[in-house]
Amino acid sequence: MRKPLVAALFALAIAGAGAAPAVAAPRSAPTSAGTGTAAQPASVARTATASGTATIQAVNFAGTVSLSNCSGSVIRFPSSADTDPALVLSNGHCLETGFPSPGEVIVDQSSSRSFGLLNSSGSRVATLRASKVAYSTMTDTDITIYQLTKTYAQIKSSYGISALTLADTHPVAGTAISVVSGYWKEIYNCSVDGFVYRLKEGDWTWKDSVRYTSACHTIGGTSGSPVVDQATGKVVAVNNTGNEDGETCTVNNPCEVDESGNVTVRQGINYAEETYQIPACFGAGNKLNLSASGCVLPKP
């Protein structure tokens, strides 16, 4: 799990977990903003060429957030209204009250957690605050979704920052992506290498995970970073883990399990959890509805 060790141990102490995952130890801060150029006002900026074909500019930090121990982003769904309360997406293992146990689903839990809102260059322009944890789990996926005290319109009006939109279709292998860490202010650029039937780490198992090509060598603190499709600017996954030591299915060393039960270990390769299934579980006003048609997220 990609979050700093000190924060992880604190979370473990709170949770009182015995077999909860330890996480990646922090490393020195990057000296630059990665290979991405963060100088545009939107997550992905486009310019027209002489032939009229749009070219993709680098993904930047606008709309991402820094947490006390992880990364995240202000997100909206295709059907969200500007007047809806804004949401922040991060990992389930970034939850401030500790790692959700296998099979555990948390909904409507009170929270006043704060988030540092970043602009396109990675500068912190505001502090946003949660009103509650709308949804959190580490079962089948690894997500926490916070509801904020401000609407999208209020954030846009006050700080000039728009939310990132979650794609509601399955990501595609070969897609060029950027993993944008608000914690480190670092952008990792690579491609979707493929999909993992089951990704197992310690006591946790995730379904249909995204595997990156080797260029996205994410580190501790990148947990919860949005994975952005460079062609659309939409979020297609949330960064969450990688195999550090070549061990098999242990904490910090997830393994791939195929439909026949065959296990593959890819040391140095990192992963994310898909997010296309999330929009179907939220209705008008960004209200969670796990009984909605098409909603496949685990239920309490």
Folded structure, characterized:
With 300 residues, this protein is mostly beta strands. The chain has helices spanning 5-15, 152-159, and strands spanning 46-48, 54-56, 64-66, 71-76, 85-90, 105-110, 114-118, 124-137, 143-151, 164-165, 176-181, 186-201, 204-212, 226-229, 235-242, 255-257, 263-264, 270-274. The strands form three sheets. Strands 3-4-5-9-8-7 form a six-stranded antiparallel β-barrel. Strands 11-12-13-18-15-14 form a six-stranded antiparallel barrel. The longest helix has 11 residues, at 5-15. It is globular. The model is unreliable at 5-55 (pLDDT under 50).
SSE run: HEEEEEEEEEHEEEEEEEEE
Helix content: under 10%
Measured by DSSP, the beta-strand proportion falls in: 35-45%
Work out the number of β strands: 18
What is the CA-atom radius of gyration, in angstroms? 18 Å
Report the structural category.
mainly beta
Report how far the terminal alpha carbons are from each other: 23 Å
**Shape type:** globular
Poorly predicted parts: 5-55
Number of helices: 2
Sequence of strands across the biggest β-sheet: 3-4-5-9-8-7
| Average residue pLDDT | 87
The biggest sheet amounts to: 6 strands, antiparallel, barrel
